[in-house]
Amino acid sequence: MDEITRILYAIEKGERVGADQLLPLVYDDLRKLAAVRLARESPGHTLDATALVHEAYLRIIGPRDSAGWEGRGHFFAAAAEAMRRILVENARRKRTEKHGGNRVRRDLDLAAPAVPEDSDDLLALDEALNKLNAADPSAARLVTLRYFTGLTIPQAAEMLQVSPRSADRLWAYARAFLHAEIYEKDQ
Predict the structure, then answer these.
(1) E-assigned strands of the chain?
(2) Residues 146, 114: contact at Cβ < 8 Å?
(3) What is the pLDDT along the chain (187 residues), one digit of tens a residue?
(4) Distance from C-alpha of 21 to C-alpha of 5, rounded to nearest angstrom
(5) Full-prediction pTM beyond 0.70?
(6) Cα 69 to the chain's mean position, in Å?
(7) Would you say 33 and 44 are in contact if contact means Cβ atoms under 8 Å apart?
(8) How far is CA 85 from the centre of its chain?
C-alpha cells in the first residue's frame, strides 16, 4: 500500500492527522492537473491553479464527512470532479446579472470587442456531462479526468482501473455522446 493510499485509508477512518499529511504528497500532482485545465480557459480568468487546487482540496477533505476513498485513483477522480464543479459554479456566477451577465467586455483604448468568455460552452458541457453520467457513469468519469484535469488516456485508464484500450473506446463513445448533446441539439 503506497503512502497516499495509507493516508486516504486513515482519513476514511476519521483521523485528522491523515489529511494534514496528504496535501504535501498530492499537491504538486493536483496543481499540474489544475494548471492544464485552466490553460484552456479564457484569458482573465479569476481562478488560478493554486486557488483551484485549494478549493478542490477543501471540498473533498473538508469538515463534512468524506466518502470512503478506495485508493489513489478514487481520490484523484474526486479531485477532478471537485475542480469541475468549481469551474462550473464560477461560470454560472459570471453569467448572473450581478456579475455582468451576458455583457461583452470592450477594450476602451482600442474600441474593439474583447475575446468572448466561454462560460456558455462550459455550462453546455456540464449539462451534457450530467446526461452522460446518467447514461454511463464510467464514461462521465473518464471525460472529467481527461477534460478537467488533462490526463492522457493511459493515465485516466490507470485511475479508473481499466485497460488503456477500454478507456480509448469509452473516450470515443463519450466524445460522440457529448458532441450530439452539445452541437446537434441546436440544429
Answers:
(1) 106-107, 112-113
(2) no
(3) 588 888 877 777 777 666 667 888 888 888 888 888 788 776 666 788 888 888 888 888 765 545 566 777 888 888 888 998 998 888 888 777 665 556 665 543 343 222 224 667 788 888 999 999 999 999 999 999 988 888 889 999 999 999 999 999 999 999 899 888 887 765 5
(4) 12
(5) no
(6) 18
(7) no
(8) 7
Distance between CA 155 and CA 26 in Å, rounded? 15
Inter-CA distances, 109 with 6, 30, 102, 114, 115, Å: 56, 38, 21, 11, 15
The distance between the two most distant Cα atoms of the chain, rounded to a whole number of Å, is 59
Read off the amino acid at residue 7. Answer: I
Q: Tell me, what amino acid is at 173?
A: Y
Question: Which residue spans within 5-123 are E strands per DSSP?
Answer: 106-107, 112-113
Q: Which three cell numbers stand for residue 30?
A: 493536483
Amino acid making up residue 183: Y
- Cβ-Cβ contacts under 8 Å for 21 (sequence gap 6 or more): 7
CB burial of residue 110 (10 Å; 0-12, 13-18, 19+): exposed
